[in-house]
Each structure stands twice: as structure tokens, then as C-alpha cells.
Amino acid sequence: MLDFTNMRSIDVDVAKRTAWVQAGATLGELYYKISRETDTLYFPAGVCPTVGVGGYMGGGGYGNLLRKYGTAADNVLDARFMDVDGNILDRKSMGEDLFWAIRGGGSSSFGIVLAWKLSLVPVPKKVTVFIVNKTLEQGATEIFHKYQYVAPNIDRNLHIRTQVFAEYIGNTTKKTIRIMFEGIYQGTTDTLLPLLSRKFPELGVTREICEEIRMVQSTLVFWGLPSSTPTQILTNRSAIAKLNNKSKSDYVRTPIPVSGLRKIWRKLIQNDESALLMINPFGGRMADFSETAIPYPHRAGVLLQILKTVDFNGQPSDTTPTSLRRIAWL
């Protein structure tokens, strides 16, 4: 049994575009450390800053840079690894078969990853982010239907995540569906707006809702914090809200027709507001990799990944009658 609590060192080498990260560090700590060294490199991992580095690379995690740089595991160069006999190995001494196996399919089956060597990727000094909300009354169904065709095939510099909620309309007892389109573009507003005007004008992105910020600030925005939040919060494990939920994933290869979307909306409206759909487009760099490049197989042909979640807010555990009903709904 190894306790990773104090195994959190992060060594960034800007010149070589690499970082050695011990398994006890979080993604937030990694991002903050990189941002202290440079604004033109980052690591293509997720937007949840409390996730541990140790399992993230091994488990096939990804984030807002997946369409340009693939998954986190695609950008692992080496590992410090302990096998079942207590031997500490690196990529050369463990061999390519084992190194293949520990990236993307769950590394804990084979031993314990003590640290990962990561390849840092280039990013501009400022990226552009925007958030657009659309309800059913504002044409959300038709806009999302087109999103399925546009988002996986648009410029690799643009990633548009969506979150889908059911919510009450004002103070009424009637519910609607709200879809939040969250975009991040590896470039300026001046370049983004003509791109969206050509490819996805229905989304209605304007200059007024675009914000040019550092890449590390985009992690704050996608976590739901203002971009002005001090980035040091990414290293404060107690200051960042912990999630308490149950999730399942689907991978969409054929666009869902409008009739199918309406069925999904009806199911969401039946929920007790504990549910969320979080949807990431694939395509781009993800389609360049073979499904056997690493043990993460969701590559060419996958349009979207849909994460379906129910939370246990207001419940003392995930086994109360209310929690069990939410899990059954999921």
C-alpha cells in the first residue's frame, strides 16, 4: 500500500517541453506549475483540477485540447513504475508492451505508476473562450442537431463542449432544456468569429461574449469560476468543490436525429434536476490515432462522447432512497 499524499513533485523543463510529475499531484497543481514557467506550453488533460495525475494518464482521460493533441495518455513519454515484485522500472526496462498497456486502459492492473514523464504541447499566449446558452424556446434542439455535424469536423483549434440541463422556466412549474455551449479556441477572437460565421452561424457567438485569456485561466472558466480568479486556487485542494456523483459514458458514431434528441430531453425533464449531460466532440487529432495505438480505443468515427451524470446533492450517501432513484434513472 503506497500513500501518494506527499508524492507531488512536478519538474517542468520548458526547453525540452517535458514535465516529470509524481502520481500524487493533481491536474490543477500541474497546470499551475506549468503556468509559472511559461504561457506557451500546456498539457492536454482535463478541466477538473482535483483529479489525480496518477490515475488520469492511465485511465484514458482527456480535455479541451483533445481535438488538437489527443488524450493525455497519447502525450506520455515515460513512466516510473513499480511492478508486483517491488522493482522500479522505466520505459526502457519495462519494455514497450508494458508501457503500451499502462497508458489509457487502467494502469493499476500491472503495478503502480509512481510518476509520469509528459510531453508538453504548444499553446498561444492567449486563447479565446466563450459561453452561449440556448433553451428549447430559442431553438436549442435544432442548434444541437447541427452541432453534431459541425463540432467534430471544424478547425482543430476549436473545441466546443456542451452541457445539457433541465430547468424550470422562471417561477413557473413548466420545465425546459438549456444547453450551454462552452468554446475554447487556440487563437484570437478576430480569427474565431469568421470561422464560426462560416461554419456555425446558428450558435450566435459575438465579440461581446468572447474573452481572450491565458490557457491556465481557461481551466478556471471551464470549472465554472471567473477568469479573474487567482490561478493559485488550482493548487488549493480544500478550496475547490468536490464532486459527488455517478456517471456513465456513451460514444456517438451516428448523429442523433431530432426525434431522438426530443426523447432525451423528455427523459431529462422527468429527472429531479440532479442530472447533467456533458458532451465533448471528438474528431480532429483523435481520428489520426489507430484504435490500438494505446488501450484507449475510441478514435476514428467517434463524433461525440456523452457523459451522463446524476449528483447526490442533499443526500447523506449514495444509498438513500432518493440516491437510488437517481441511479436507477441514470
From TrEMBL:
GO molecular function, one term: FAD binding
SUPFAM superfamilies cross-referenced by the UniProt entry: FAD-binding/transporter-associated domain-like (SSF56176)
Protein name: FAD-binding PCMH-type domain-containing protein
InterPro entries named in the record: FAD-bd_PCMH, FAD-bd_PCMH-like_sf, FAD-bd_PCMH_sub2, Oxid_FAD_bind_N
Taxonomic superkingdom: Eukaryota
PANTHER family registered for this protein in UniProt: OS08G0158400 PROTEIN
Annotated ranges, domain FAD-binding PCMH-type: 1-123
